[in-house]
Amino acid sequence: MTFNGYGVWAIYRFEMARALRTIWQSIVTPVITTALYFVVFGGAIGSRMQEVGGVPYGAFIVPGLIMLSLFTQSIFNASFGIYFPKFTGTIYEILSAPVSSLEIVLAYVGAAATKSAVLGLIILGTAAFFVPLQILHPIWMMTFLILISVTFSLFGFIIGVWADGFEQLQMIPMLIVTPLTFLGGAFYSIDMLPEGWRTVTLFNPVVYLISGFRWAFYGQGDVAIGISVAATLAFFAVCLAIVMWMFKTGYRLKN
Amino acid sequence: MPVIEIEGLTKTYKSGLQALKRVDLSIAKGEIFALLGPNGAGKTTLISIVCGIVTPTTGTVTADGHDIQSDFRAARTKIGLVPQELTTDAFETVLATVTFSRGLFGKAPNPAFIEGVLKDLSLWDKRDAKIMTLSGGMKRRVMIAKALSHEPDILFLNEPTAGVDVELRRDMWAMVRKLRERGVTIILTTHYIEEAEEMADRVGVILKGELILVEEKTALMKKLGKKTLTLNLVEPLDAVPADLSDWDLTLKNEGGELEYSFDANAEDTGVPALIRRLEALNIGFKDLNTRQSSLEDIFVSLVHRNGAAA
């Protein structure tokens, strides 16, 4: 056996089944939350704002809202997926099974990324009911959607392995990722900021991800598309390297 | 050929705790091996290393000829583990969790085999029940079903009957024997020494991370076993008479019982001579019985002896 396909499929299916079992939490809640964003930002505030770069404000915030859901849901799904077996003790079975580190990551991260990508597409479909949408580069849009789902699922996996309690599990998504997303141009163009703040904002890595995704929709972003792609790939590579190190050393998994 | 070969195995945790101090052990194919030891002796660490859950500090382990680290896939495919704790996915159904385990260990789906395992463990009627609704005993059966789902050749049972009722314990013993008949090697840790006495072919005693003894159970009981003869006296004695000083005698039960401990394997146990001497001294007895020391007695004495020496 060089690749334990049955093992990967078993974990993947288990994780997907968990999402279906908790469908309100997994799908319905994020969709309702996003719809509320459209009502508040798109409807109430958007109606008083002018277009941003020729794009109606309601439509402008769609990529940012999808990204916000992708970030938080990818992290939540993957971190919970690996943390919960650690918490309950069922991790013993994964660690004693003939599955390699890569296969474990593939299964958990694959499932978490699938759930987030599907959720992203559902939110996109929901958005179409509220605002006029256009997607100039659909292949790039899907590429970003999948790559960012996978990258943040890897990030979530790291948090899940690292976390010692439910508080730590929530800490990074709530205290770091959500603020960075709000300040990373999810609801505005960074061109709207004063010069000094614009420079500060460029140190926020989330800017590059949202900008690239928005470019796929409207052909315009806060930074060049090449820089967005490079930043996304760099974040992906860093997360992958940390996960590989965790398995190699058994960090918080073995011993 | 040994199915499990452990050489120079040590484990020191980051806290500095030395859980295993150079353990060497060979387990033959098809045998039932009981690993005994007090809490914290290193039993679970040893099992966890063989199963891949804990990384050893030094040493090598092979399972059916496959190194557990360099050839982990082949090694782990051979091994099934029933852990000590009842760790299950509470929201899963019995059938789903057992099917999951089979897939996890790289085996193609085989509903007929899973059905057989569940029926053997009296779980088939509960196949659609969520694990959280099951009793502790039934959860224990689920753990065993999960471990057997991928048809392992080597089965580790870490305290399999802790907290289960007598009936289930008997059922499990029957199941273990049945597995052995199929050629499965079983390594068992238990606090119930009678369990080891009932089932094991060989016994290993681990203490403070060291394997202090590995022996055939029957040979061990023969070698270390003591026998006790108890005589219920007609008239109680105040003290053991001086004329009986050649025997290791103790008065019990307010002088109503005379107890004689002797080596069960000795050529001359001294029992006939003692009876003759009692007759000569006109010390009558109403009844007598003998008792062979159990594996538990042997285990306790070994632990005490080595504990005191350490």
UniProtKB/TrEMBL annotation, chain A:
Domain ABC transmembrane type-2, first and last residues per copy: 21-250
Intracellular or extracellular location(s): Cell inner membrane; Membrane
UniProt keyword annotations, A-Z: Cell membrane, Membrane, Transmembrane, Transmembrane helix, Transport
Record's signal peptide: none
Transmembrane segments: 23-45, 57-84, 104-131, 143-163, 169-188, 200-217, 223-247
A Pfam family that the UniProt record links to this protein: ABC2_membrane
Topological relation to the membrane, as annotated: Multi-pass membrane protein
UniProt-listed InterPro entries: ABC-2_transport_permease, ABC2_TM, ABC2_TM_bact-type, ABC_2_transport
Chief location bin: membrane
Family statement: Belongs to the ABC-2 integral membrane protein family.
Name recorded for this polypeptide: Transport permease protein
Lineage: Bacteria, Pseudomonadati, Pseudomonadota, Alphaproteobacteria, Caulobacterales
Automatic annotation (TrEMBL), chain B:
Keyword vocabulary terms for this entry: ATP-binding, Nucleotide-binding, Transport
GO molecular function: ATP binding
Gene3D superfamilies per record: P-loop containing nucleotide triphosphate hydrolases (3.40.50.300)
UniProt KW Phosphoprotein keyword: no
PROSITE patterns membership: ABC_TRANSPORTER_1, ABC_TRANSPORTER_2
Domain ABC transporter per the UniProt entry, residue ranges: 4-233
UniProt protein name: ABC transporter ATP-binding protein
Organism of this sequence: Brevundimonas albigilva
Lineage, opening ranks: Bacteria, Pseudomonadati, Pseudomonadota, Alphaproteobacteria, Caulobacterales
